[in-house]
Design a protein that fits this description.
Radius of gyration of chain B: 19 Å
Distance between the termini of chain A: 38 Å
Shape of chain A: elongated
Distance between the termini of chain B: 34 Å
Oligomer: heterodimer
Largest sheet of chain B: 6 strands, mixed
Helix content of chain B: 25-40%
Strand content of chain A: under 5%
Number of helices of chain B: 8
Helix content of chain A: over 70%
Number of strands of chain B: 10
Structural class of chain B: alpha/beta
Radius of gyration of chain A: 26 Å
Chain lengths: ~300, ~260
């Protein structure tokens, strides 16, 4: 910006943008559309439940009405054990106890799996030979049907907590390993050259360029993984656990408590949405520097 | 002794199963004196970027040797700073900490790093943006920031690979003026790759024309430094630029002698 440059001072004229008066209305419409979709789902549910009620002897075990599901909340107390009072207090106790058991397994599994997955990915990424040698194992890991592994983990660990945590950790590990390796391959070569030309050693380039550069892609991977981790957790618990949301879900299924199954599913959905929101906040914080096209929303 | 000395450098890229090869450079000899600004021009694919990368130590030559300051080039080093055409910035560091990157490698204490970074940011007109993320900068500002990163590292040789190629004309001129202004203050040896003939003529003491991996012509630019933005508008400059264009288009001719250098307005 030298003073001799003729273009700088003269070139700036400001133009007024047209007023955006229409925007609030469009937003209102969006909102009512969204609310409408929820109403539509409930209406369809009620219609289906009504049809079921016309044609089945025990309609509540096929598809109860929404209000029947909600009013049966205290019915969850049945999972305290045989002969338990169906009080709201017991029901809340069932939800809290089993949620905590599930959450601990999920948290441990995700943490262990994420550390191992990202760590292994970073180790592989350090060596071109390692990542070339391990291309086939990586492809195999990517294609493992996770749910088909449940019996295998049952064989190895029984229905123990260790088994379920190991199962979640393995699922998270395999997915994050793949996204970490891909993220390392996607680091633009020019930024590596730039760092090296500034005098950085290979190890420093890895530590100060590769590691931060992969954060957006790995964080995106983590968000997907945590969403799926709930499904993996419930899958593991359905088959083998002594407690947890998956366990009471499987009990509810055995006794044809359809409404209670739906309640448990709703609880899991609330957790999934909350955890996803938390991971999104975390990932947005960690990637606040990243251009929008490489961020997850 | 020359600052940069390229001796019989050749680079052959081999690819594919059939061992197809491309000779990006063959028999290149070039010396650049201390404090000289040399521009390398030529059509795309002529090997100019490869030559720059060889000097930078980012591309090992197939044959020949390169010396910088009497030392044989073997890999990249902080004595040669490279400004790339792409937006090479550390996106996860704010503007100031980008500039501090090289200083961290040198082990300079935090307070000194900060002071040096801010001084360079002031010099490129970015001091108000020190705490911004790179993504918040415009294309021209990103380029300024990249120049500050490289210059703060205090290289002996500045290697620039079409650094202003992606910018609009006004921004480009502005940055050329700034670069010359900075170099007037702290002279450095510069190798500047470009396909823009006006840019080459405005910045360089000597323009090297490359064709098919070889140095085809060498032209002296008869303007003394310091050069100002006004030079760009002078008739002399228009004529030199035209002559340079003729040289590039018709092999064999040489740029006429530089007697008019003193007639600058």
């Amino acid at each position: 910006m030298s003073a001799h440059d003729p273009g700088v001072a003269a070139g700036t004229t400001s133009k007024k943008l047209p007023e955006t008066a229409g925007t609030p209305r469009i937003r209102m419409d969006k909102l009512s559309l969204r609310a409408g979709s929820v109403v539509a789902i409930i209406v369809i549910w009620i219609v289906c439940a009504w049809l079921v009620a016309q044609n089945f002897n025990r309609p509540a075990s096929v598809l109860p009405y929404p209000w029947e599901v909600l009013s049966d909340l205290r019915g969850l107390a049945v999972f305290v054990g045989p002969g338990a009072d169906l009080t709201l207090e017991n029901a809340v106790g069932v939800i809290v106890d089993n949620s905590l058991d599930s959450a601990v397994r999920l948290g441990l599994g995700v943490m262990i799996g994420a550390m191992l997955g990202v760590g292994t990915g970073l180790l592989l990424g350090m060596s071109r030979i390692a990542s070339m040698t391990l291309q086939i194992p990586l492809l195999l890991i990517r294609t493992i049907p996770l749910f088909a592994l449940i019996p295998l983990f049952l064989t190895w660990f029984g229905g123990s907590d260790t088994g379920i945590v190991a199962y979640i950790a393995f699922g998270v590990f395999s997915m994050l390993l793949v996204s970490t390796v891909a993220a390392i391959e996607n680091v633009p070569p020019v930024i590596l050259d730039f760092a090296r030309a500034l005098g950085a050693s290979r190890w420093r380039v890895y530590r100060t360029v590769v590691v931060p550069a992969i954060i957006p892609e790995v964080a995106g991977g983590l968000r997907v993984v945590v969403g799926i981790a709930w499904a993996i957790l419930i899958g593991g618990e359905l088959l083998g656990a002594q407690s947890g949301l998956g366990r009471i879900l499987s009990l509810a299924e055995q006794f044809s408590y359809t409404g209670r199954m739906m309640l448990i599913v709703a609880i899991i959905m609330i957790y999934t949405i909350s955890v996803d929101y938390f991971v999104m906040l975390l990932s947005n914080y960690l990637t606040r520097w990243a251009p929008d096209d490489s961020r997850s929303h | 002794m020359a600052h940069v000395e390229i001796q019989d450098v050749a680079k052959r890229f081999v690819r594919g199963r059939n061992q197809e090869h491309v000779d990006a450079l063959s028999d290149v000899n070039l010396t650049v004196e201390h404090g000289e600004i040399v521009s390398i021009v030529g059509p795309s694919g002529c090997g100019k970027t490869t030559l720059l990368n060889v000097i930078a130590g980012l591309t090992p030559p197939t044959r020949g040797r390169t010396f910088v300051g009497g030392k044989a080039v073997d890999g990249p080093g902080k004595d040669r700073g490279v400004v790339f055409q792409q937006d090479a910035l550390f996106l996860w560091r704010n503007v100031r900490r980008n500039v501090e990157y090289g200083l961290e490698i040198q082990g300079i204490p935090r307070a000194d790093r900060r002071a040096t970074a801010l001084r360079w940011l002031r010099l490129v007109g970015l001091e108000a943006f020190a705490e911004f993320w790179p993504k918040e900068l415009s294309g021209g500002m990103k380029k300024r920031c990249q120049m500050a990163v490289v210059l703060a590292n205090d290289p002996d040789v500045l290697l620039m690979d079409e650094p202003f190629g992606a910018l609009d004309y006004m921004t480009k001129c502005e940055l050329q003026n700034e670069l010359l202004h900075i170099l007037d203050g702290q002279p450095k040896t510069v190798v500047f790759v470009t396909h823009d003939i006006e840019e080459a003529a405005f910045l360089a003491d000597r323009v090297i024309v490359m064709r098919r991996g070889q140095i085809a012509e060498t032209c002296r630019i008869p303007f003394e430094r310091p050069r100002t933005a006004a030079l760009r508008l002078s008739l002399d400059f228009a004529r030199v630029r035209q002559e340079l264009m003729d040289v590039i288009e018709s092999p064999g001719s040489r740029l006429a002698g530089g007697g008019e250098a003193d007639e600058r307005p």
